[in-house]
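Onboarding guide, step 5: your first structure request.
Type a short instruction followed by the sequence, for example:

Predict the 3D structure of this protein.
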Amino acid sequence: MSLLVGMDDPTINEIARKVYDIQFAQDPNLDRLYDDRQKRLFYQDILYNIGYLNTAIKLEDNYIFTSYATWLYELLCSLLKHLDRDQIKNQMVDHYSLLINEASELFTGEAVQLAQTYLRSAIAATEDAVTNIPYSERFLSGKHVAVRQAYLGAMLRSKTHEAAKIISDAAASGIPLVEIYEDILEETMHEVGELWHKNQITVDKEHYCTSTTQMVLSQFYSVIFSQERRNLTVLACCVGSELHEMGGRMVSDLFEYHGWDSIYLGAAVPQVSILAAVQEHSPDLIALSVTMPHYLIDCRDLVYSLHEKFPKLKISVGGRAFETTDHLWQKWPIDIYTKTARDLVEWAQAQFGQGSNQ
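The system replies with structure tokens like these:
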């Protein structure tokens, strides 16, 4: 059982070129995603892949090629920072599928079937590697870790329907809505931010996870907005040019669930617009969310403006940016800083004498 030709035979280069050309023809985006140097390396990798596959077949050891496939995948993820782990996985799966089709051109006898078997194993190993990311200690602790891991894993593999079903199944199993928000969705989105910060996922994947989670949240709105009203209003928004609005959205939803009316202004709201909204709606509480540290100055300026213009208004701040400071909020004229939306709701319920609805 061996290659039909030797590794130094020109036929190998012809087949490698054929695989290269077919893959680029099938996926026109590759021409845009790779520069000339990366395209040359792409072609060289095809030759290396054939060589490793030949070694595994000659030794009849599947693990040689699957371990190589996993190593190659992680190497490409570290080198091709402009590509998402899911994108690289798709390219590798397409590549191995093409080699399966060309196996009879490369090998003879029983080696053809072995090659196809090993290549299918490499596909499975590469698909598994997508979610094989070292998660933070925070993400791996607390309630419902298995659910949040499954949810994040589905999103990292771009399985929107699977991700949504994981959360709907969690709700059906009896997990309280507050825990779904705080312990599963919020913790998952915090981890997504960490993965992006560490350059382990691209910004488009971060945006995909955000939009998917926003869609997942919407399935609970019929319950959230049907709660008995308590004649209290919270206004929530993201400060400055902040675009990370998930935290503010969750704050609004949980307050609605506890009977408050919420006014959610969304992302990147100018200070003048926030002040105008407070003037118009006269909320009992304003919740300011900051994710990126460079918007903390905007938040500080807004806090002082709110304190001066609306001295009776309760002011809260939160968001990932504050976790990077040395208790910065203690220097500002605010009423409360909390790490989670649940903590803010509990404080507000006690502050306004409403008790808890959990």
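Each response can be followed by summary notes, for example: Residues 145-218 form a domain with the Methyltransferase, Methionine Synthase (B12-binding Domains); Chain A, domain 1 fold (CATH 1.10.1240.10).
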